[in-house]
Amino acid sequence: MTTWHLECSACASRAPGDALASVCPQCGQPYLVRYYSPPPPPHRVTARWDLWRYAPALPLRDGEAPVSLGEGLTPLLELPQLARELGVARLVVKDEGLNPTASFKARGMSAAVTRARALGVPGLVVPTAGNAGAAMAAYAAAAGLRARVYAPETTPPPILETIRAFGAELERVRGHIGDAGKCARAFAAESGFFDVSTLREPYRIEGKKTMGLELAEQLGWSLPTHIVYPTGGGTGLIGMWKVFGELREWGWLAPDVPLPKMIVAQAEGCAPMVRAVHAGADRGTPWEDPVTHASGLRVPAPLGDRLILRAVRESGGDAHAVSEEAIRAGTRALSVASGIDAAPEGGCALAVTRELVARRRIPPEATVLVFNTGSGASYRF
Fold it and tell me: If you average pLDDT over residues 82-100, what whole number do you get?
């Protein structure tokens, strides 16, 4: 028996939680998981030391073993000196580079591959800017499933070698992740492999939302005033905004705990969501010729554009893009100030924080949580 169903994020369409599903067949928009009843209170989380300690709040059947490599439970690190330098009351970094395969993508793939295996898929395929492909390859190997990954030729070589190391079939593609996505969908149609692209299946969001669950628990069931999130496909931002609403609905958060302002951080060379936020649009438009060395941000047309914009709008958040030079400076500053081996996406989030504080779009009394979504080691070659 499943305890959840799927709801389209844009129309009234529904699908059962025990059937294989991609995007909504009526409108082509992503499905979201909805639960029939609230999970038990937070003191009833399990004794596991991975994200599945929150199993009652995740799409897992009773008695089912998840596909897990020990993902989640990443640290929150206080950076008081950097907070003073930037001019905010408190600066905290959540270091997702400590996940399996060195990025936050492990969370989403753990949930997605768990459900795909349970539903009997013959294999998995994904387009990637890098980290998603490495994570999918690892979890497919753990699940005993075949895997194929399509990656742009510009993907950092250490990540490509990681994909190969897990036995996945790797196809390099000219162009950007959108071009890789077209190849992945064509292969899925001809092979029967299941496409686990960002938001083309509904469960990666559920794994990513555990970042929000964790930080709430780590902060004593409170939340920061601002979350600065490096945004490519945006699944993590969407998932966190989803779970913050669920935490309120379930009573895991006190009614007087304010929800954070969600801030999109992007690179100037690929900033479709920043452009859409400042235009007051409900949808993004594809970014022409995306260019940034932060490969996880090189997503010119995210499928979840509506959901990203909704989270920013509903939270009273913001969006900002910074230069390649600012990203490099932010990456180094984050590493030097914290001891974190920061990825350029994390550097982008810090650089955006610095510029928004300077422009008074983040106030000096703020508690700011910055996400470092991967490890800098993946980018050094």
Answer: 98
Q: Can you tell me the mean pLDDT for 27-43? A: 92
d(CA 357, CA 88): 8
168 contacts 136 by C-beta, under 8 angstroms: yes
Across-strand partners of 152? Answer: 173
d(CA 11, CA 25): 11
* Residue at token pair 């932060």: 294
Helices in 192-292 by DSSP H: which ranges?
204-208, 210-218, 235-250, 272-279
Q: How far apart are CA 47 and CA 156, in angstroms?
A: 37
Angle at alpha carbon of residue 57, lines to 53 and 61, rounded to 5°: 85
| Cβ-Cβ contacts under 8 Å for 372 (sequence gap 6 or more) | 93, 94, 95, 96, 97, 334, 340, 342, 343, 345, 346, 349
- What pLDDT is attached to residue 1? 61
What region does 167 belong to: left with phi over 0, alpha with psi -120 to 50, or beta?
Answer: left
Mean pLDDT of 73-95: 98
Closest CA to 350 of 221, 168, 228: 228
Domains present along the chain, CATH in parentheses: 76-101+204-379 (3.40.50.1100)
pLDDT greater than 90 at residue 123: yes
Residue 134 confidence (pLDDT): 96
Residue with tokens 């206080």: 78
Mean pLDDT of 345-373: 98
* Residue ranges of E strands in 61-213: 76-78, 90-95, 123-127, 146-152, 169-173, 194-195
Give the separation between CA 369 and CA 146, rounded to whole angstroms: 37
pTM of this prediction?
0.96
